[in-house]
Design a protein that fits this description.
Low-confidence stretches: none
Helix content: 25-40%
Number of strands: 19
Structural class: alpha/beta
CATH architecture of the largest domain: 3-Layer(aba) Sandwich
CATH class of the largest domain: Alpha Beta
Shape: globular
Strand order of the largest sheet: 1-2-3-5-4-8
Radius of gyration: 23 Å
Strand content: 15-25%
Mean pLDDT: 94
Oligomer: single chain
Number of helices: 15
Number of domains: 2
Length: about 425
């Protein structure tokens, strides 16, 4: 068996859902795994995050430039958290052989504060299951960096048995600041994981990173293991581990802040026209993935209903593999949710996409937004006025096919967010 075939088997053993976008050097691996092709890499990661929400492991295979398209949900997932494991296998074209650029994807570990594993020939197969276990233990997406020498070489060993640790996502009462504090605490714990990981071999002399090989080896490249002395390091790509060898854990950010500890929480503006639609979704047990924007206030009193998404424009891609209901603002859909909506219609995925149209960017100063209906003729959306209760009851129903509902309303003149005191 080739390295790609052996890795493909390890991937299928570790998770049931895999998405991938072919491209050198991972084209053969996507074929070996039998990945489903998403409309783009960002939507593929959103699908993985949706599976995670409902307790299913999922993975994504992309090349380095494809990882760029995943940046927003990748970073957002660090503070929003996971349930079941999510792993991204990223293939780096080290010399730009078949790509528009050469790139070292390990730097995304530092940017998103996600662990990065760079396997060698001796441990690549066990690294797949290890990555999923790590993702579930620390509620983080895990990156596994693959390079041409690894994918074109011979792999040793065998995959390890699957052991899923999926658990409910925690922290519903955390403020945004509290989520950041909690994320920093997890990052501190990842430094301990890296230093104690069995994936590394003692670095007594010249050390190879990942597929660079050698008697001594480092595979947990972010966070780097502590105690890397002044030994020569062989790396594929830029000197990432060399640059980060003295990196230390971030300071403890303190006890994560909750809304109750803060004493207040923002809610929808008094007189918001979209309140009845959110209330109806709750009454009917339709659980929305809430996009960034005013849709997030569905999570606040008096509704306290729904699941937070993973960045602006993410709700549809996440909802397609989780609850089947997305709650989005009009600009959020235009921003980057349209690709996922197109895919839902093309594949016939049952989805209720509820778009709150207030024709403005309400959270950033009420800048005017385009008329979203002009971009959705192909979807044949239902156009409903926010105060038309009869029409809302007719269209807000469990989805049997893709359905887009545009609810039209205007923000009250001079409106300001409401506040709940605890």
């Amino acid at each position: 068996m080739t390295a790609e075939e052996r890795l493909g088997r390890a991937c299928r053993l570790a998770a049931d859902h895999w998405y991938g976008v072919p491209g050198y050097p991972v084209t053969g691996l996507t074929e070996s795994v039998g990945t489903e092709l998403p409309v783009n890499e960002k939507v593929g990661l959103e699908h993985c995050l949706g599976h995670s929400q409902v307790g299913r492991r999922a993975g994504l295979i992309v090349k380095h430039v494809g990882l760029n398209a995943c940046a927003d949900p990748l970073v957002q997932a660090t503070t929003q958290g996971l349930s079941a494991g999510v792993v991204v296998l990223v293939g780096d074209d080290l010399e730009g052989r078949w790509s528009e650029n050469a790139q070292d994807s390990r730097y995304y570990g530092e940017l998103a504060e996600v662990p990065v594993i760079e396997p060698g020939a001796e441990n690549a197969l066990e690294c797949i299951e290890e990555a999923f276990r790590l993702s579930e233990a620390h509620s983080r997406v895990v990156l596994v960096r693959l390079t041409p020498p690894l994918l074109e070489g011979d792999l040793m060993g065998a995959p390890v048995p699957r052991e899923s640790w999926a658990r409910p996502r925690s922290g519903a009462d955390l403020t945004h600041r509290g989520r950041h504090q909690q994320a920093r605490r997890v990052t501190r714990a990842l430094f301990s994981w890296s230093t104690g990981s069995h994936l590394n071999r003692p670095c007594a002399g010249e050390t190879g990173v990942g597929a660079a090989g050698g008697a001594a080896r480092i595979s947990t490249v972010y966070p780097p293991p502590s105690g890397i002395g002044p030994v020569p390091l062989r790396e594929l790509g830029r000197p990432f581990v060399q640059e980060h060898r003295h990196l230390r854990p971030p300071p403890d950010a303190g006890v994560p802040e909750t809304y109750r500890r803060r004493g207040r929480r923002s809610t929808l503006c008094p007189g918001c026209p979209f309140g009845p639609a959110i209330a109806l979704l709750k009454d009917r047990g339709l659980v929305p993935v809430c996009d960034t924007g005013c849709a997030l206030f569905a999570l606040a009193p008096p509704y306290e209903h729904g699941i937070a998404g993973y960045g602006l424009g993410s709700s549809i891609g996440v909802a397609m593999t989780s609850t089947g209901v997305a709650l989005s603002g009009d600009y959020a859909l235009l921003h980057s949710g349209m690709n996922a909506l197109v895919e839902a219609y093309a594949t016939g995925t049952p989805l209720l996409a509820v778009v709150l149209q207030n024709r403005c960017l309400a959270m950033t100063g009420h800048q005017e937004a385009p008329d979203v209906a002009l971009f959705l003729d192909w979807a044949r959306p239902a156009l409903v006025e926010a105060d038309d209760n009869e029409a809302l009851e007719r269209v807000l129903v469990p989805p049997e096919r893709p359905m887009t509902v545009i609810i039209r309303g205007r923000c009250p003149e001079g409106a300001r967010y409401g506040t709940v005191e605890y």
